[in-house]
Design a protein that fits this description.
Layout: E1 3-7, E2 10-13, E3 18-25, E4 34-39, E5 46-51, E6 57-59, E7 67-72, E8 77-82, E9 91-97, E10 100-101, E11 105-110
Length: 111
């Protein structure tokens, strides 16, 4: 079955960086557009970024220029490099493929 396992979250000071990873299994990773979403406490889950099978990317305005999504099809891995982190980036970050979600990884940015 489809499995998505996120990792790499943690506590970081404002201005710092983190790299999130998502290990995918149970499906042909290379033929799917992959997404990152996030959900802050008390808020709805929101789109962060996606990457197509051809490597085209798109970002939410709130993270554009600071976050970079990438993928390694051979390893079935999805990544999110997050730089210049802000306290408002604090959230649980989720990897997504269509209707499948991982368990999420917590990112906390202190001011």
């Amino acid at each position: 079955q489809v499995q998505l396992v996120e990792s790499g979250g943690g506590l970081v000071q404002a201005g710092g960086s983190l790299r999130l990873s998502c290990a995918a299994s149970g499906f042909t990773f290379s033929i799917y557009t992959m997404y990152w979403y996030r959900q802050a406490p008390g808020k709805q889950r929101e789109f962060v970024a996606f990457i197509t099978t051809g490597g085209d990317t798109n970002y939410a305005n709130s993270v554009k220029g600071r976050f970079t999504i990438s993928r390694d099809n051979a390893k079935k891995m999805l990544y999110l490099q997050m730089n210049s982190l802000k306290p408002e980036d604090t959230a649980v970050y989720y990897c997504n493929r269509v209707s499948s979600w991982g368990q999420g990884t917590q990112v906390t940015v202190s001011s």
